[in-house]
Amino acid sequence: MRKTVFASIIKLLILLSSAAALGQRDFHPDDSFLNKEQQKQFPQNLKYFIRAYPDVLFSPKYDEEKDDWKITVTATQSNGKTKTQELYWCESRFLPEEKLSEKENYRRLLYKYNRTVPDPENFTEEDIKKIKDFTSKENRTNGAIDPPFLYNVIFDCETRVSTESHIENIKFLTLSANVHEKISPHLKKVHEKAMALPRDEEISLFFKTLNRTDGFNWRTVRDTQSRSFHSIGLAVDVLPRGYYQKIIYWAWQKQLRPDDWFMTPLSKRWMPPQRLIDIFWEEGFVWGGTWAVWDNMHFEYHPELVEYAKDFSEK
Q: Per residue in 177-193, pLDDT tens?
């Protein structure tokens, strides 16, 4: 009996020790302290952001008045300064209190990223209508935008001055790129893995025709009010020689074929090698080639989408 009690005490101490070590890095794994309605609303998907940004603290607390989870986000920058802000979960939008009434103006940050390039040969009339509506000038100009508030905390990128203080130049794919210092380690790994690929015909052609690798560029996404990930230094474009003559970007093709640009066959689009796309993915980057507004030169740092895809997205 004494041995059983003693073993139970030891086990409890180990659990308490583990919880203390985790601190605020994870939300409470047992939501039994919540009422049934609160349990339904508990942001279980917050775990994907916690996995994606292990150096960031996410501390959730239920706000009964707002009927949502208020998350204190704390990130430490390279200069040692700590940036903290309280943001509401708001179905993964991470909005400050003053923006909650405008939540429909912002997209969710978490969605199922599709790793397969949609083939126009399989488009239905409904698919085509959705693409046309989504890419219309009215929707791009006045539609929902990407909320910047979480990234402002993590990457200290609220202003151009603060962002540029974190931009550095790195050697990348035989060239160089200006990127945010927090993603430099990941891009360096992409570089190392890519340079180690066997130089078969496809890989050799890619490096032979590689012309530019563009990173930081302070701007919004074309025709929208959303900040480009280039303006945070979290995106890189990989461009071949003569890229204006390639079918590589939806908007360039739309200028040439405004009525049916979206039906451009996959065989006529320039695409980077799949092995390179996979390497980027391993380091937390999504490729713009699978979006409805395909951007085949573009890679964007979204480790939360990669983590989410491990459980839910189609492979």
A: 999 999 999 999 999 99
